[in-house]
Design brief:
Elements (H helix, E strand, L loop, with lengths): L1 E4 L3 H8 L4 E5 L5 H5 L2 H6 L2 E6 L3 H6 L4 H13 L3 E6 L7 E5 L2 E5 L5 H4 L6 E5 H15 L3 E3 L1 H16 L10 H18 L14 H11 L2 H11 L5 H17 L4 H5 L13 H10 L4 E2 L4 E2 H7 L15 H21 L2
Parallel strand pairs: 2-3, 3-4
Antiparallel strand pairs: 1-7, 2-5, 4-8, 5-6, 6-7, 9-10
Helix pairs in contact: 5-8, 8-9, 10-11, 12-15, 12-16
Length: 340
């Protein structure tokens, strides 16, 4: 059977009473929201927590990784299992503490979502719950496991930096950029699956790109070189935007001449390629290029939703990407002219 509710606090708290196993699926969560489930965490023997993993979510206040880490440590201190699975494309909300009842709907694990927001909560029981439980493995396969110890170690190391207020431009937040790089370095094996599609040979390496920028000498290319040599740890922004752009044009060469026609002192406006670019990033989200240390997952973390990324509350690499794309297009156009 299916029962509908306007808010989830009462039905979820009733569902978890006396339960020791459960799946909690929520992209966003807060300390106050997690506290609603503390009776479950305090008694839990097996926890599956499905969520996003993006340090910028923490900075934006839509996720409280430190609060989650306290629950992780509490459960593991009792030598019980805490299974974390992640995807920055996650949007589902699921609360399941038994095979006879599942709660789904629109509510994240935050206090407003569970109390005052206009949400839809669906309580599945009996055969409907059993059917949904059988469906869960399909969703689980699309999530990437992150060892709880790895998650906890990262939060311990990066927590102070991520939680520290920053008043300047997002792109120039050197400590946050370093925290993102640390997350990717520490979690890459868990977060990103290697794909054979990344074995294609790129026409230029990033050193060639730097030389081209120096030779071009436009205000846009000079700004790129400032980022590479500057103090804001933006080398990662430039590298991932560059290799992402090259891969895009290799797949969609029809856009090279159009983007290359962007005035040399202007940024790419994405009017004609926006949808194609977003689809391109999503389709390659789990790929890496090991030799070049290029990771689509990292690029998406740097970019906002409107550019195919997963960043909430800004997008540190947006200006960099808009500078890099026309320059890469001009490089490829010149190469094509040289080789006929």
């Amino acid at each position: 059977m299916i029962h509908f509710h306007e808010n989830g606090i009462n039905i979820i708290q009733r569902s978890l009473l006396g339960k020791t196993k459960g799946i909690i699926c929520t992209p966003y969560y807060t300390e106050r929201g997690l506290k609603l489930l503390d009776p479950f965490f305090d008694a839990a023997e097996e926890v599956e927590f499905w969520t996003r993993f993006n340090p910028l979510d923490w900075r934006a206040g839509v996720a409280d990784m430190a609060a989650l880490n306290r629950r992780v440590k509490s459960v593991m201190s009792r030598h019980k299992a805490f299974d974390i699975r992640v995807s920055d494309d996650l949007h589902a909300k699921i609360y399941s503490f038994s095979e006879s009842k599942v709660i789904i709907g629109s509510a994240n694990l935050t206090w407003p979502a569970m109390t005052t927001n206009i949400e839809l909560i669906c309580e599945l029981t009996e055969g409907d719950a059993a059917g949904f439980i059988r469906f869960l493995p399909k969703l689980r396969k699309r999530l990437t496991p992150v060892p709880a110890e790895v998650f906890s170690a990262y939060v311990d190391v990066a927590g102070d930096v991520i939680s520290k207020p920053y008043d300047g431009p997002v792109e120039e937040d050197e400590q946050m950029n370093a925290a993102i790089e640390l997350a990717e370095d520490g979690l890459r094996d868990a977060l990103v699956q290697t794909s054979p599609k990344t074995s294609s040979i790129l026409p230029f390496e990033i050193e060639d790109f730097f030389e081209y920028c120096k030779g071009e000498g436009t205000s846009v290319s000079r700004e790129i070189m400032k980022q590479v040599k500057g103090k804001y740890n933006l080398q990662g922004h430039v590298k991932h935007c560059y290799y992402g752009a090259v891969r895009f044009f290799c797949e969609f060469p029809k856009y090279i001449y159009e983007i290359a026609a962007t005035p040399s002192d202007s940024l790419c406006d994405f009017t004609s390629i926006g949808e194609q670019w977003r689809d391109f990033l999503r389709s390659h989200a789990d790929e890496i290029d090991g030799p070049r240390k290029f990771y689509f997952h990292t690029l998406r973390i740097y970019l906002p939703l409107n550019l195919g990324g997963t960043c909430i509350g800004g997008g540190g690499a947006s200006p960099t990407l808009k500078r890099v794309l026309p320059i890469v297009a001009r490089m490829l156009r010149e190469q094509e002219k040289k080789h006929g």
